[in-house]
Amino acid sequence: MHPVRVSIPSFRSENNSIEKGYTVFKIDVLMSGRLYSIEKRYSEFHALHKMLKRSIKPPEMPSKHVRNWVPKVLEQRRQGLELYLQTIIMENEVLPKIFLDFLNIRHFPSVPKTESCGKLSHQPVMLFLRDPYLLPHDEFSNVVIEGVIHGIFYPDLQPR
Q1: Where exactly are the structural domains of the chain?
Q2: Which of 41, 67, 94, 118 is the residue whose CA sits 20 to 30 A from 25?
Q3: CATH number of 4-103
Q4: Pair 106, 158: CB distance under 8 Å
């Protein structure tokens, strides 16, 4: 199971004078214990779907043509898009880069099958004499501790 979880808890309608109204879906992304939110329009999901078709067999997308002003229909679309994202995560051992970019994930550390079967690469080791989380806060700032822990457990994950 991937350490990435997604949900679409809500949506909202946008209206402006430049273009006709549209709906924005709020996507909550939970990765490595950190939760953040992004917003995407249906057209962005549709573009993702077209690009994913080049590398994987993505699940079905909710219908493109709906009456956007009907709340019940928008709720069904929200549920369908949430299932769409979750299915991509569940069905793919390695998530496509285009999908990670869509979720604003810069790099997702994964261990290729060849490495998990015996060809292990060298990983540097760092040792603390005492647990840094148990040290008084005036000895180390939280930023330093978080950076060290991040470096130990997620060495391939690039900071934003």
Answers
A1: 4-103
A2: 94
A3: 3.30.1520.10
A4: yes
Question: Which of the residue ranges 72-81, 115-124, 128-137 would you say has the lowest mean pLDDT?
Answer: 115-124
Residues 6 or more apart whose Cβ sits within 8 Å of residue 14: 21, 22, 23, 24
What tokens were used for 13?
């309608």
Check whether 80 has a pLDDT greater than 80.
yes
d(CA 123, CA 125): 6
Which residues, including other chains, have CB under 8 Å from residue 68's CB and lie 6 or more apart? Answer: 13, 21, 22, 23, 74
Strand order in the sheet with 4-14: 4-14, 22-31, 34-41
- Residue of higher predicted confidence among 139 and 147: 147
> What's the CA angle centered on 38, arms 37 and 41, to 5 degrees?
145
User: Could you tell me where the DSSP H helices lie in 10-121?
Assistant: 42-52, 71-91, 97-102, 113-116
Nearest to 5 by CA among 45, 24, 44, 33: 33
Q: Which two tokens stand for residue 109?
A: 């550390």
The segment with the largest mean pLDDT, out of 15-24, 43-52, 129-138, is 43-52
Does this model's pTM top 0.70? Answer: no
